[in-house]
Amino acid sequence: MAASMVCRPTEEQPQWGGFVAARFYKPRNRAMTHANLMNNYFNPNSVYTEEDFRRHFRMRRHIFERLLRDFHQVNLYFRHKWDRASRPGFSPHQKVTIALQMMAYGSLADSMNEAHDMSKSTYLDTLEQLCDTIVQVYKDEYLREPNQEYLNRLFRKVEDRGFPGMIGSLDCMH
Description:
Elements: H1 30-42, H2 50-57, H3 61-74, H4 92-105, H5 113-116, H6 120-142, H7 148-160
């Protein structure tokens, strides 16, 4: 797959309108960032271990792969495509990775630009697509209103751990 993502820079960088008139194309090496991501986390002899993966992504690799498969099947955004300038787009692994990292760490889109070589607008579009897809795919199974028995069990658990009233918080992670 990485071989099909090779982008060859041109002598002259074309002006690209995108969403903002007169915005210039910034040559981003999507193939290299995809290859690094795969080499670091997903290839059989990846640089990082399963424990490293769990710590970095805050989930096990098989859960990530299930999410990736589900998103790929349901939402065309998470399929590998060519962009309007006939360059290979970001891979599904790249898109899911950055959106999950933004959610897991509360990262700002601007702060992740150099690591993943994506523009702020692409980060935000990807995060929005991921959130919409999560609701679409997992709503019935995981995103239901809690019943009173479940809430009571959660209240007891958080009080035992010294966090009374935590259930009323909108963001319990950060």
